[in-house]
Every structure is written in C-alpha cells, then in structure tokens.
Known about the structure:
By secondary structure, the protein is mainly beta. The chain is built from 10 helices and 48 strands. The chain has a 5-stranded mixed beta sheet, with no helix packed on it. A 5-stranded mixed beta sheet has the order 24-48-47-26-45, with no helix packed on it. A 5-stranded mixed beta sheet has the order 35-42-43-40-41.
Amino acid sequence: MFRTSLLTLFAASFIVLSAFRFDDNWLDKIVAKFEAYQRNSPQEKAYLHLDRPYYSAGETIWFKAYLINSGSHSADSVSQVLYVDLVDKTTGKVVLLKKIEMIGGLGEGDLALKDSLKAGDYTVRAYTNWMRNFSEDFFFHRDLPIFRAEASPTVYPSNADDIDVQFMPEGGQLVMGLEGRVAFKATNILGKGADITGAVLNQANDTLVGFSTLKFGMGYFTITPEPGEKYRIEVRKPDGKYAKYPFPEPQKEGILMMVDNVSNKENVRVILKHNKAVSATSELALIAQTRGEIMYAAKTSMAKKMSLFSIPKASLPEGITQLTVFDEKGLPVCERLVFVNKNQPLSLELKADKAVYKSREKVELELTAKDAAGNPISGSFSLSVTDAGQVLEKEAYGVNIRSYTLLTSDLKGAVEQPSYYFDAKNPNNVRDLEVLMMTQGWRRFSWKNALEDSLVANKYFVEEGISLMGKVVRGNKKQPGKVKLTFMLQSNGKDSTRAVFMGETAETGEFAALNLDVRDTTNLLIQAVSERGNRNFDIVLDAFQPATVTVTKVPFNSIQFDANELAEYLKRADEYLQIERKIRESREKMLQEVVIKARKSDQVKKDSRRAIYGTPDASIKFDQINSSGAMTIFDVIQGRVAGVTVTGSGFNRTVQIRGSANFSGVVEPLFVLDGMPVDKASIMNIPPVDVEAVDILKGASAAIYGSRGGGGVIAILTKRGGENYDWSKDKEPVPGTLVTKLLGYSPVREFYAPRYDKAAPEHVRPDFRPTVFWAPMIQTDKEGKAKMSFFTSDAQTQLNLRVEGMTPKGQFGTATTQLKVQ
C-alpha cells in the first residue's frame, strides 16, 4: 500500500547498521525486530496552520494542511485524503468533518461554523486513514475557544494555588547507592507551569537537597538514595503553604542512566552505572533512534560499574532522539529523550512596500525564503493577516510548523509555549529544553511493541483517493458468492459529471472501490447481479465513522481570555454576523418571489450525453412493451435496427454492425454508457428497465470516436444518467440496486478579500474583519520570491502577519511582522 517515498527511511537505516559489528546476536535480533516493526508501521504527521486562535459561531475557520513523512520530515505524497474535524471537548462529539485532498503533502480547506453552534472549548483534529492504526495522540490537535457574540466569555479562576507536582527519575528509575537525577513538573489548575520551591528530607528530618523551578514549572535535583532510608518531599506552593509528596521508590539493584546534552557541543554523553551482581561476560547496550531510524548502537561490558558513551551530534538529525538501554537479558530498562537543535530553520522575510497604511489601502508584500546557508529556496507557505485589536496573541511562543514537527508531535502531553525552545536569542533555551526532555513522555514508539514475536496487522489502509466499501447480502443470509457490480457516480455540481466503472465482490459479498476522485457530495448508484442474472440482493455500504475521541478531564482550554480582552472582537463579530444574516434573508426572499413561465418545449435542453455525436443513425426508445421479459439490453436491440446483428444467447452475445469486419473476423462496436466508454460486460449487467434509449452510430458517424469506433458505436442512455434525473428521489427501490450519496473531497472555497480599487455594491458595508487576509497556497520561485497583495480594512489598528511553510525536503520556517493602519 505504500509508495517508495514513505519507506526511504528504512534504506538509510540499513546502511547505518551495516557499519556495526556485533560479537553475538542478541543485539542483532533487537535491531532486526526494530526494522521489521518500522517497515510494518511507518508513520505520518499532519499539521494545520489556522488563520487565528479563536472564533465565534457563524464565522469560518480557514486552514492550510501539511502532511509530512514522520521519518524524513519530507512532504508526504502517499496519503491523499486528510480528515479534518471539529470536536466538542465537553461531549467528545464530532460536530464538523471535512475530507481534504492532499497533493504532494499540501491541502487547504475551511470549517464553516453554524450560527447555532454553542460557545465552549473545541479541538480541531487532522489525521489520515493510516494514522488511525495508532494512538489518537498521533493526530494533530489544536484547542480552540469558540464564542457567541451575545454571550460573555468564560471567566477563568485566578487562583493558581491548587497545583499538582510530578517527580520523574531520569531514565525511569533510581538505584540505591548510585547518584541520580530526579526531574519534576508543577502545574496549576489551568494546566500551566507553576513556580515552586521544595526539599527532600530523610527520616531524621534532615534536608538532603533543595530545589526550585527553572522554567514553566520544571526543574531537577540530584540525589543518592541510601539503603534503609526513607525519604519524603515537601513543596512550598505559591500561597506559602506546604504540601507533601512521596519520593520515587529506588531500586535495590539495577542500572541508572544520566545524560549530558548541554555541556558538550560536539557529543551527547550518556553515563550508565549499575550495582548488579552479574558475570564478567555480561554486557549492556545503548541504542539511539530518531523517528524510526537507528543512528547509534553500541555495547559495553558490565564488568565495569560505570560506562560512558559519546554520540556525535553531527550524526543525529534535528529533532528528538530516543536513547534506550538494554540489560544483559536484552530487555529495555532505561529510556531518555534528547533534543538535537541544528539551528537551521528556513529564513523567511516578509517585506511590505510601506510601513504605515490608510484604511482600505492596498498592501504589496514580498516573501523571501532562504535556507540556512542563505541560498534562495522554493517552498510552499501560508499567510494570515489579522487585526491586532481583535485577534490577541495570548502565547508569545505558541505552536508553529517548526516547533510542532520537530518537538511537540513526538511528545506526550501539552508543551507550554513550544516555540520558546527555538528562540536563538534566549540564553537558557538549551538548558530548559533538556529539562523538558526529562519530564515529557515518549509516545510515538514503544520498544514493547517492537519486541513482540509477531507484528499486529494494520486495520486501516493508506488512502490514495476516496474510498467506498460495503457488502452484498442475500435475503436468506447465505453468502452470495461473487456478484458483478456496476457503479455510477454523478456529481451535483454545475457540470454534472458522470463516471461508470465495474467490479466484483468476494465470495462473502464484500467489496471495495478505492482511490476514487469524488468531489463534494455525489450521487451514487450501485447495481448488483449474479452470473446467472439474479438481482435479488441487498447492498449495504460501510458508514464512515470519524476517529475515536478520547475526552480528557481538563478543566479549561489551553488558551484563556476574559470578557474585557475580547470586547472589541465580540462587538465586531456581532455586527458582521447581523449584516450577513440580513443579506441571506434578502436573498432567500428574492428567490421565493421569482416566477418563471415558459412552454415545456422551451425548457427541454439537448441531452449532453449526445453532445459528442449529435443525431444518431438510429435510436431505440425503451418502454414497457419492448423491454418486457428482456434479460439484457441486447434482447431489446436484436432485430429492431437494420444492419445490427446480435448472435448467441444469455450472456454470451456477439454484436456486429453491418460492414464491421476484417481478416481477423468480427469487429464489435464501441459501447458507451451515459457518455462513458465501457466494456460489453458492463452493458450486460444493466437491467433493460433502467434504460431510456439506445443510439446506434455507423460508419462515418462513428468516426468521431477514432479507431475505437471502427466497428461502430452503441450508446446506452440510462434513465438515471439523464440530466434531470435525481436518483435520490426514487420512490420504489429496484432489486439489487442502491441509490445513495457519497461524500467526496470537500470543495475549496476562496477567502473573501475585497478589492477596494474597484467599485462594488458591497463596499458600502463596514469592514472590520478579524482576519483581513488569508493566502494558503503561496509558492516561492527558484529565486525564493513570492508576491501577494491585499487591502486593509476600516480599522485603524496594527496588523499582525504570520507566514509558515516548508520545502518538499522537510525544511520548516516561520516569520512574523507588523503593519500599522491609521
């Protein structure tokens, strides 16, 4: 199911491993199982750039979708369907769902919020069908508050004294008699980091070590637990009160891990200590893997009680590397994450033609993209321009495409202000990032899964198009055997395009039509017939079920606002939505008053299915008289058109139009079903009662079809294929037929951005849009340049501009700038 692009990381891992020479095979087996697991379970990442951080009911969420290969971080061209949904965090229900077409790992779309949507905390998710094989934590998540203009925002409590503190030994465990480190994380009722101080005390109430937070409620301390001692932890909370916490229970015997990724710029140093009584030949091993590729593997003798491993940072890719220690039995016993920051983001620059603008004035922008070496580079980017008076940026270092792909997408749990760790101007970001690696849990990969003797089969497949699955069943509940199927698709759009294709079920009656190019909501007709012509079947489609939603009991959204902060935004949102409702009501009223009078003959349009050939040489109109008792279409045609001969019986028919033969024998005509060329078997399965007419083209009339029409053309026009026929309104179901709707790719809407250099009636409306401009598909050329323009609104304000994007090879960048309107 996978193309080469999703599996290239495995070839690289094989090359790296071939350089290692192991003395025995226990580590070889671990590596082999790891590689097999990764081949079976390669991963994807999805990211959405949203136009702003919050919305009101009745507004539209605009987004750019990026789909990324988890291993190489290059654009993922395998999955071509991305599901984007909106989840009510209170109930866990999916209230909106879109299918986004991904081309080369890129897509765009929107979520139109209903006027009736209740205010509250919501989450936007993005995932592929393949990603559903793994934890929901792998999906992209973005918390969004949604307000109502007439309702006041939630007032969040200011009391931050109710805190929770977790203590986590480095590597996973403490060992008696060995010096180790313990990381901790303190969070308040809002889920934010809380500043604390504390101490570790022994049974005699002696203070052994004190500690305090460094950043975002995180920190660590060093301690050597001694046998026979009991320890406790006391923490001084922000209100001055003390709280007691249990000390992590140390192991009497085991392996301890300490990592230094700060003091040495060239190497990640890993110190392993143990107090186990083992033989002199026993060994332990260290494996470093990054996003499914083993970057380092080495063993050492356990005859020494302490070992030092040095991993060159130059050999590790940018991002999170997982360090795992295996004991003498080949079992994983210690684990730690490290982050390697190459400091090589894309350099993005947004330059406007002016620094200050007037209301409704045109802004000319130029985007320049360069790689870390300063060379111009081509990539795909998205730009949002928002009114700073309405759209508040509550997090100075919020999530962006770089912080998500390199950091938070590979961590479990929320990371506060993730972009903080990528600010090169911050002198403590390396230290604070190291503490984050000690406190956050790894979730993308578990050695337990990789070391299983057998791999679990993946339930969900890779979608390279819209999927359609179901089952044909018999009334007596017996297996139907193989059943021939005819699928007819007709879009509801202006062009009313049609498609026809054939298929066959398995013996159980199950079927699947994959990789379909279906747009918006499409009419679907499926006909089932056995080889003996039996049509007494029921057709049942598998209903699409959104991915499972896990409701977590988080008291509040990750972004908090108070009523005063959003007063301007809520006022403008209410004004805009009232105008929109009035326009909608006016439009609906006008449509109701329109009356069209015309004779029926004037309303009849020429059938577009005959557009390619016009008037046929002969035509047979099917009715109850000539189709009564007929098993196939050919039973009706036979003997009714001069020059058309039908020989054979049952489903073994040969059709010939006079003069269509060569030295090889009979040349059968081209069969066309509702304008689409099909094979003869497709025609045999169509019930005559479903046919409106059959057109015959001979000789020169068939020349328009080229060499395919050398034997003439027989064009079948079905009743359901007619321009004015609505399958969904069939009053009586036909045996062996299913008529329904199929949800395809969500149509792409264009963001409304008025052009004030050209007069238009709608310009009399006040313009105080919170999102002034949204451009999801900006492509820089070989010079690294792209130009765009928009007009300012009526607001005299500051405009915040944010651009995000990536190159096809997985380089990420983001940039912000401001413009003044007065």
